[in-house]
User: What shape does this take?
Amino acid sequence: MAERPAARRAAPATPPTDEVDASRMPFLAHLRELRDRVRNASIAFVIAFIGCYIFSTDIYDWLRVPLDDAWRSHKDVLGNTPLMNFKSVTEPFWVYLSVSLWAGIFAASPFIFHQLWQFIAPGLYKRERRIGIAFAATSALLFIAGGAFCYYFALEPMFTFLLGYAGSTLHPQLMMSEHLELSRNMMLAFGAVFELPLLILFLAGIGLVTHRSLWKFNRWFIVLAFIIGAILTPSPDPVAQVIMALPMVVLYNLSILGAFIVTRRRERAQAADGGPTPARDEDEDEDER
Assistant: This one.
């Protein structure tokens, strides 16, 4: 008996074999794969942690450079070299251990993310893999750029401002752990802030925002940037808040250009497919009238 055409049409479509792995691992195999990836990432972190602990004093001295330079700008009051103190005999050990921990995470992060990618990549399509690689690489570069901007352009002015309160009857007593915590939190905060362009491009890509709405919100974002700078900066001084707010405003306006490209591309694709025309902003209509 001949096969009916309707039966052929009712057959479910299968994804292309060149995009999705043909073999599907059972649940226990996924758990074993996850165990192996976590084990490899842990080994990489332990090796990086041990290597960073060997050079922990050099890493901490590198973190002290902005503070030392700021101290020398007040050498007529404070002297040439800052003296770092610790409150307990165990504090230097824990400080160097913390330095090694964070430096080890940073040094091992490429291998850790590679292991994570090796676990999730087989379940993705080719396009999703390309987007994932681009997203991860861009996010890492922006985070590093934010931390580097903080280290080279924000820490020294902040320390210079704060040490300006010193005088003949007021002398700072610097603590190792407090200096490390402040420098680390500042660099992490700047790294997070520099992820702003990636966030805005993602929102523009899914159609949640457009370059028109972003430009309308620009005046309010300037105020919001200073509020965020006051919240995220561990230091309460206005210098650190301004230094964080200004790059946020610049990054926001640069993101508008990226959102313009993404929005226009999506609108052209919708117009070519005969889709609905995107709604226009009220401000644009008023300007034309």
Summary: Residues 68 and 94 are 22 Å apart (CA to CA). Residues 126-163 form the longest helix (38 residues).
